[in-house]
Amino acid sequence: WVEKYLHREFTKRGRYVAFFSLYTATDFMLKLTEQMITGRIRGAKDHSTIAWFLLQLGKSGNEDVLNNHLVRNQIEFLKTSDQVGFPQLSNQLDVVFQTIILDVKLKGGDSAGSKIDATTVAVSLEDAQRTMRPPGTRDHDNDKESFRAISIIPTTSELQCQESAYLPSANGSEFIDNAEAATLDRQFRLMREDLLGTVKEELHTEFKIPSHKRRRVLPDPCIVNFGMKPEPHVVVRVSIPPRLQQRIRKMKNPEASKFFDEGPGKRVLQKGTLVLLVHDASAGTAHLKTKDRDIRISAVGTIVERLNPMKIVQIPGTDPVKQVRVLEVGVSFTSESMRSITQLLPSLKDRNVGTPMIGSNGGLFNASAGIFSLAPILKALVKLDQVPMCDQTVNLNQPKLPLVAHGGKKFSDLSSTLQKAVTSDQSQQYALEEIFKSNVVLVQGPPGTGKTYIGVQMVKAMLELEKKLLSECRPLRILCLCYTNHALDSFLLDLIKAGVPKNLFIRLGSSPKIDPSIKSRCLGEVDSSVSTKFGRQENAAFGAIKRESEVLETRFKDLLKSIAEESTWGKSDSWWQIIGEWLEEHYYEEHDQLYNFYGADNDGFTRTGKDGKALKNNYLWERWFSGQGRGIFQDEKKEPTGIWECSKSERKCMVERWNQEWIQPQVDLLEST
Q1: CA distance 79 to 92
Q2: Which pLDDT belongs to residue 292?
Q3: Average pLDDT over residues 361-383
Q4: Burial of 474 (0-12, 13-18, 19+ CB in 10 A)
Q5: Mean pLDDT calculated for residue range 124-131
Q6: CB-based contact 366:216 (threshold 8 Å)
Q7: Of 253, 249, 219, 251, nearest to 236 (Cα)?
Q8: CA separation for the pair 293, 287 (Å, rounded)
Q9: What is the DSSP letter of 148?
Q10: DSSP per residue over 336-369, as a string?
Q11: Fewest beta carbons less than 10 Å away: which of 225, 283, 368, 535?
């Protein structure tokens, strides 16, 4: 029953959405737990199906799921299961739902769970290491006990936090007792810190130098538009920093544009890099030292679209009309950042001019760190529920004999040509011999010591022995992974030079710089017979996705228009009709003080003003909004009461607060869209 139900929901709605809908359904988890414990779920695969269901939820990084006591109870029960897939599934659940041990004793006898002041002065390196608090205890919103709950894109409070991030030691985490979970935790946190640490260092370095010499803080950022592809983004326009202005000052527009398209300027606002909206709150206090400067971060995002980077715009109001060079990019801001950015939308009236995002003491900081290079790896670590080859890579047990053609063979079984290729270097021969007896081999060495060379010889040895024993063994498949297109092409070219026929390999991935001699072996080039047309099911799925995308795009644009054009309240009668209804529902006492009860009375008489004309419905609202008194309704013998005794500035603050409350549902809907 469980397997059929989950499969039906999965095919209908998609894995995570369907599973999370089940998880949040009223009493679903409670009833599931009760039926498991009472033995009412007895199918041969029910326990493994539930374990799979929990794994998918846990790998989403949802904190509520990771800390749910019912989920924990189910996991404990599943540890006693003898159904298909256990105890391996129990270990995978332990890896995903890792438990942080906060009462562990650190070196020196300090309890890791005790509160340690981040400003504690350490008298030695060992003291500094002992003061590192456990994960989930820092004063920002992205320090989580489980690394799966950590946002890959840093948050504003995280970037401004002075306390160091929690970084496990090379020996493993003292707070996690599951070795596989600790390994994944360490890999994620250390790799992410490579990104975060670089950003923090660059930011502080940038503000050490005078503003006219900065190259990473681009001044005068403003919102000029919005885009939907490749994903929803804000089009941000910035001025060219003085340092770059000097380099392109004597260039004509086509040459300057080429400078940013193909020349050194292409590294400015590069697609996939992190950007921060920053300002120096301590500007004007020249006596402050650099380390004491108050650098504030109000938004974080990534560049998803590098528009025609250099653009010529006209400055309105200048005579003669002045033209300036600017840069424009599409930035996908985080949900947290969009909450503050949407507050700027009401002032976006003229998209040629744009809406300023920050004052003169700040700008758009363009970090050198590229999210695109690390994000796929970090996301993959989050989705892992076990470490491949963990018996050797984590538990450090002795390697096993490879279950392939070359497993158990000897160096002497190779051809004389292949033997001669490595006999001149003892370490290379030793590395090659390892592939015969070990299922995991690590070749390590400085640049120029022959790592790529021995990798090529290993591939040749595997292929040679497989050819000899083809009738006895299953066909060999070799997967070569590299971090960059260049490294992969270099390795494949070395294989071809070493005599490996290129028709034996297929290159996955694409790059405009692929070597011509390899391009013919790219997947798309090799098998042109592969149908690129959708079948009936694919067509239906694509159509549904396209329709949903169009609906969301329309809603997104309508919301932006509504927020930008209708969220700045006015005092007209048409505005009062909208505002009055909202105030009556949310602030009825204030509404009653602003509502004109004195229209036509029971006798048919109409209240008029001094000009003899009938009072409009917005008469009181207009006067209160403008900072005036109650007009003809004011009793001169009595002092104003209620909201009428508020000063003009107090009324303005009240209107802004009401306006923000009024527009918040639209902002929330914009974020979810």
Answers
A1: 11
A2: 64
A3: 87
A4: exposed
A5: 49
A6: yes
A7: 219
A8: 10
A9: G
A10: HHHHHHGGGGGG---TTT-EE-S-TTEEEEEEEE
A11: 535
